[in-house]
Design brief:
This protein is α/β, with parallel strands linked by helices. It contains 26 helices and ten strands. The strands form three sheets. The protein has a five-stranded parallel beta sheet with strand order 2-3-4-1-5, with helices on one face. A three-stranded mixed beta sheet has the order 7-8-10.
Length: 546
């Protein structure tokens, strides 16, 4: 005997077997018990949610010779068996996708004149009714409004927006909801027990999640997984392998590389998944879903039931939610959503995906607001970690560092550990990062430095960093040689520059100590690549360009 697919083998035959549509099942049962059966029903909803199944159960229920107390068909009488076997002339199923012309509807109008040979009602089930032509809808209108008392129309559609209002107003409309992951997983577990297949709970839940609210899709995917590993235990890894998807751990690694702007490593991870046979469209869809979960975690503290992830994955998402702001995350989702639409018709899917990954890692490629905000985020992160941008080396700076032509040290990397005397631009950078530098020192020096205002004299070219402090005791403590050395060591570690330190009163050396340039101005200049010029001093000397 030929094999029967799971979704056909386990199609519900009574109302109680229908899962996830309690609001519809309860209403239909009440109508059957009270004898208030309508003449036209419209079942709306996404694929695989039970529209046709419920239509067939209702067709048997209205014709059953001995219905159950709740109105369900007995499925044992001769009428029920004929309908189940598809040999009954009382239930006519029509596929509107291939029978959508006026002539097809005219045939229905002629047939409804004849009473059913067995049973009480003649039931017409028109599937994908939105595919009917305009002329066919007009031909159906009068019959649908005033059919004979023994005729029931059940229309099913996935695109209710395409149905004329004149048709909608003549039907009782029932909206079929997407079935929850818990409901699908419970149903799959029951069917696996009947089939004698051993499966991990995690594997079952992943199949339920991949079905996207469709019970039929879930059964088809499960059928595929069982066939691939026939006679073996169905594990989470095997399900991922069959469906061409990846574990969330890989998405976590990929996201962290994207946040860091490491395009080469992100491409390497992608190529690794491609070599393992992962399907590109499914990969992009799952990564977008992962970012969606991250966005929900970022904006709410109580969404565990909505996320449907394990405790370990939830903790991982919470950790990653602190690495990126909502604007950057929305930018990622938008780029991947556009990519998902492009992949449907693309022949070079890997190239498109690699290009999108580079865009994620390199926000400077995007000129819109979200791209600019992402660039600012990356810049702030570099400044927080002390990753200073290297300023161009001028001729005078090259002489100071020994890298000028003819010195014998050309080409030496200025970032080498050997500290050199700090120039004016180095002091400006140190001042911009003062909070971080102060935070790296130990107590009690840290407490004193928090109150200090760093200033310097650019006119003289001195590498002295003046710390303006109001309290005499604080100045005395900071000017202690051991504490000076500690602070200088921290600055050397971060910048590779040798700086002299001197704690002074706020009004001391006023003719040399510059006024503060706001940190915001420095950040803006860094972003736009604009040199910062200092104001002229009172003595009229020219400022040094940055």
């Amino acid at each position: 005997m030929s094999y029967t697919a799971l979704y056909r083998k386990f199609r519900p035959t009574t109302f109680d077997e229908v899962k996830g549509q309690d609001h519809i099942v309860t209403t239909l049962k009440n109508q059957l018990k009270a004898g208030r059966i309508g003449h036209a029903y419209l079942f709306c909803g996404t694929r695989g949610t039970g529209k046709t199944t419920v239509a067939k159960i209702l067709a048997r229920a209205v014709n059953c010779e001995s219905p159950l107390e709740d109105g369900s068909p007995c499925n044992a009488c001769e009428t029920c068996r004929e309908i189940l076997n598809g040999t009954s002339g009382n239930v006519i199923e029509i596929d509107a996708a291939s029978n959508n012309g006026v002539d097809n509807i005219r045939e229905i109008r002629e047939e409804v004149q004849y009473r059913p040979t067995r049973g009480r009602y003649k039931v017409y089930i028109i599937d994908e009714v939105h595919m009917l032509s305009t002329g066919a809808f007009n031909a159906l209108l009068k019959t649908l409004e005033e059919p004979p008392e023994y005729v029931i129309f059940i229309l099913a559609t996935t695109e209710v927006n395409k149905i004329p209002v004149t048709i909608l107003s003549r039907c009782q409309r029932y909206n079929f909801h997407r079935i929850t992951i818990d409901t699908i997983a419970s149903r799959l577990q029951d069917l696996l027990e009947k089939e004698g297949v051993d499966a991990e709970e995690k594997a079952i839940r992943y199949v339920a999640k991949a079905a996207d609210g469709s019970m039929r899709d879930a059964l088809s995917l499960l059928d595929q997984c069982i066939a691939f590993y026939l006679g073996q235990k169905l594990t989470y890894e095997k399900v991922l392998d069959v469906l061409g998807t990846v574990d969330t751990e890989v998405f976590s690694r990929l996201l962290r590389r994207v946040i860091e702007g490491d395009a080469s490593e992100a491409i390497r991870i992608l190529n690794e998944m491609v070599r393992n046979g992962k399907e590109m469209g499914q990969l992009v869809t799952d990564f977008t879903w992962y970012l969606r979960n991250l966005m929900l975690v970022q904006n709410s503290d109580d969404l565990e039931d909505v996320l449907d992830v394990s405790a370990e994955n939830l903790q991982q998402l919470k950790e990653e939610s602190t690495m990126i702001d909502s604007n950057g995350l929305m930018r990622y989702i938008r780029i991947l959503s556009d990519l998902s639409n492009q992949l449907r018709y693309a022949t070079q899917k890997q190239i498109l995906t690699e290009t999108a990954l580079i865009r994620l890692c390199k926000p400077q490629m995007d000129t819109d607001l979200s791209g600019v905000l992402d660039r600012i985020r990356q810049l702030e992160k570099k400044m927080e970690t002390g990753a200073f941008l290297q300023a161009p080396v001028s001729a005078s700076a090259a002489e100071r560092t020994g890298n000028a032509p003819g010195t014998g040290t050309e080409g030496i990397n200025p970032k080498q550990p050997a500290a050199v005397k700090a120039a004016s631009e180095d002091l400006r950078r140190i001042r911009a990062e003062w909070k971080k530098i102060a935070g790296m020192t130990r107590e009690p020096l840290h407490a004193y430095l928090e109150k200090a205002v760093p200033k310097y004299d650019s006119a003289s070219g001195s590498n002295v960093l003046y710390l303006s402090m109001e309290d005499d005791i604080s100045r005395t403590q900071v000017n202690d040689e051991s504490r000076k050395e500690e602070l200088k060591a921290v600055i050397r570690e971060l910048t590779g520059k040798e700086v002299e330190i001197e704690a002074v009163a706020p009004d001391a050396g006023g003719e040399k100590i510059l006024a503060d340039i706001p940190v915001e101005e420095i950040l803006e200049a860094e972003i736009q690549g604009i040199p910062i010029e200092e104001e002229d001093d009172d003595d009229g000397e020219e400022p040094e360009d940055y």
